[in-house]
Design a protein that fits this description.
Helix 5 runs antiparallel to helix 6. A three-stranded mixed beta sheet has the order 1-2-3. It has a three-stranded mixed beta sheet with strand order 4-5-6. It is built from eight helices and six strands. By secondary structure, it is α/β, with parallel strands linked by helices. The protein starts with a helix and ends with a helix. The mean pLDDT is 88. Helix 2 links the parallel strand 1 and strand 2.
Length: 150
């Protein structure tokens, strides 16, 4: 079965960091320049949370804050599901769905930040490696069910 570590290994090194005390406008500019929908928020080398396009729309625009004065800390997401690197892709899918989130934060056994697994990462993995992602018995049942329906 494929794991969160397999996903992280397939991604480029993390480069989309921003300091928690940065202004929201800086975060938006950085997201635009790296062409990603989220930034990893760090403070003095410690993981603090995620700042995403969704955070911007819900916590800045809808609350009437100003991008030039609000800080990332004020609007970022901090309560995200945490997984270990050996978590299966199938379990990642379940967690994303049950927590209604787009991001899972990966920490190793020493509680060191390893990276972020996104809903897009999981979907890409599922499409590319469906026979390695899903339990074979469940996968076979799904195929049989699909054949009966169509």
């Amino acid at each position: 079965m494929r794991t969160a570590q397999d996903i992280l290994n397939s991604k480029p090194p993390i480069f989309n960091f921003i300091d928690a005390d940065s202004r929201v406008i800086e975060g938006l500019q950085l997201m635009n320049s790296v062409n990603l929908s989220y930034l990893v928020v760090m403070k003095e080398g410690e993981f603090q949370g995620i700042f995403s396009e969704r955070d911007y729309s819900r916590n800045v625009i809808l609350k009437g804050l100003a991008s030039h004065s609000a800080t990332i800390r004020e609007v970022m997401s901090t309560f995200l599901p945490v997984i270990g690197p050996l978590e299966t892709v199938e379990k990642c899918m379940q967690l994303l769905n049950s927590h209604k989130t787009r991001y899972l934060v990966v920490f190793n056994d020493d509680q060191q930040f390893q990276g972020v697994v996104t809903i897009n990462d999981v979907l890409r993995e599922a499409i590319s490696n469906r026979e390695l992602v899903f339990d074979q018995a469940e996968f076979s049942q799904a195929i049989e069910l699909q054949d009966k329906i169509f």
